[in-house]
Amino acid sequence: MSVIPEDAKSLNGQPRVPAKRSLAARFFDSDIFHSFTRSWVTMLAAFIALLLIVTALLAPWIAPNDPFNPETLSLLDGSKPPFWAADGEWRFPLGTDQQGRCVFSSVLFGMRVSIVIGFLGVLLAATIGIVLGLIAGYFGGTADSVIMRIADVQLTFPAILTALLIDGTMHALVGGRRSDVLIFWVLVISIGLSFWVQYARTVRGSTLVERNKEYVQAARLIGLSKPTILFRHVLPNVTGPVLVIATINLALAVITEATLSFLGVGLPPTTPSLGTLIQIGNEFLFSGEWWVVIFPGIALAALVLSVNLLGDWLRDALNPRLR
Question: How far is CA 125 from CA 5, 62, 130, 188, in A?
Answer without folding.
Answer: 53, 31, 8, 9
